Amino acid sequence: MSNKGLPRHIGFIPDGNRRWALERELPKEAGYSFGIAPGLALYERCKQLGVDEVSVYGFTQDNTRRPSEQTERFRAACVEFATDIARRGASLLVVGDESSALFPPELRAFRRRQGEGMKVNFLVNYGWEWDLDGLREGGLRSGDVSRLDLVVRWGGGRRLSGFLPVQSVYADIYVVDAYWPDYERAHLEAALAWYRQQDRTLGG
Amino acid sequence: MSNKGLPRHIGFIPDGNRRWALERELPKEAGYSFGIAPGLALYERCKQLGVDEVSVYGFTQDNTRRPSEQTERFRAACVEFATDIARRGASLLVVGDESSALFPPELRAFRRRQGEGMKVNFLVNYGWEWDLDGLREGGLRSGDVSRLDLVVRWGGGRRLSGFLPVQSVYADIYVVDAYWPDYERAHLEAALAWYRQQDRTLGG
Predict the structure, then answer these.
(1) Model ipTM?
(2) DSSP per-residue letters across A43-86
């Protein structure tokens, strides 16, 4: 298979877990655990395609203002996802403010990249201001994350919501209307097909 | 008229001037001058609607790597547009690196905001790195530009291309496939109608 036109680095914003749960008459916070299996499927597919690096939105410092039923569930879902992909051999880096009690202690070791496989940058208790504030002290706090070629967002929102603002400056943004727990491989294929058609001049 | 759901601050990325010219068998650089009248029409419409602030992509430091036939023409078009909206009473701030020879000297006075009308931030010889580098010295170089609610891009590209990365973190992004010189008021109306339907949680 040719890699022509395959993005080197893809960002994923897995939005819509709560709306998915509400549609099923489940409590909002029940949605998060249904996002783990899709995440693993997406990870395996990217690895299979030969993508070099992926960045995944876990949760943000803003998200932690939500009710504790929600914050507990999304923290647990993030720990489960991260632990599983580390076990599967990902080269995992967790990017987020570990100085806060809201940062899951289980993930502290991954604030330095661990492992040798496909690079996965997982944003956990991440904040764009926290990230950029690093510039005041010499460099971005996400300095080990490379520039994004493509960002795929589920849940219909046409915005970045603070997702790696520096790495996203030239990224093509593809939006899937389906909610994240309804992830299908076809969503990724459609995003990649669309990406191949984009004209990228990078301003030149 | 009710202002409910009207974005307070809108960003505009007027892309597609060169492709528009090529479609008409004109030289690429001929496209820029056809972008001025649409810009004035858009300015007047935003003022009429009661928008508080608009930010407009003029050209970037990356753009200045293009052939001189192009850089001369887009610089001239930017000067003409800026001069005209200042005359029309805009509260004009030009945001960009004025230390370079590529910054039009005619616009130097507008590196500090001038005028009392609708705020217009016009990005001229702007660079996202130049902007963020200000953080190393205390603050963004675009520090006088407020957070964007909506970004409208012409020319079909689904990306920000370095447009005010900090102010764009939560902006809804609306893409018009038409090239910028083919601007019609209906494009703006469609963007505003779409914006009113978006659910904005700002992460909370």
Answers:
(1) 0.94
(2) HHHHHHHT-SEEEEEEEETTGGGS-HHHHHHHHHHHHHHHHHHH
Please give the C-alpha separations between residue A153 and each of A15, A167, A193, in angstroms, as whole numbers: 7, 15, 15
What is the distance between the alpha carbons of residues B32 and B58, in angstroms, rounded to a whole number? 10
- Tokens 């029409």 belong to residue: B41
Rounded Cα distance, A123 and A95, in Å: 5
Three-class secondary structure of residue A6 per DSSP: coil
Q: How far is CA B32 from the centre of its chain?
A: 14
User: Inter-chain contact A161–B203, Cβ cutoff 8 Å?
Assistant: yes
Say which residues have a Cβ less than 8 Å from residue B106's Cβ, sequence separation at least 6.
B79, B82, B83
Record the pTM. 0.95
Contact status, residue B93 vs residue B48, Cβ threshold 8 Å = no
Q: In the structure encoding, which two tokens stand for residue B111, read together?
A: 């590196």
Question: A145-166 pLDDT, tens per residue?
Answer: 999 999 999 999 999 999 999 9
pLDDT in tens, A170-199: 999 999 999 999 999 999 999 999 999 987
Query: What residues does A172 pair with on adjacent strands?
Result: A150
Residue A165 has its nearest CB partner, among B158, B159, B166, at B166
Intra-chain end-to-end CA distance of chain A, in Å: 30
Give long-range contacts, CB 8 A cutoff, 24+ apart: A134-141: A135/B132, A135/B133, A135/B135, A135/B136, A136/B135, A136/B136, A140/A166, A141/A95
| Chain B partners within 8 Å of A63 (Cβ) | 203-204
| B128 contacts on A by Cβ (under 8 Å) | 166, 169
